[in-house]
Amino acid sequence: AASDVYKRQVRALRRDNPTLSIYAKRDRGTDSDPFNNSIGVGVSVPFGTKSSSAPRLAEANAAVVDVIAEEAERERKHEQETRQAELTVEAARKALHIAGQQNKLAQNRLRISRRAFELGESDLFLLIRAREQADIQARAVKRSQLELYLSQARLNHILGAMPL
Question: What is the pTM of this model?
Answer without folding.
Answer: 0.60
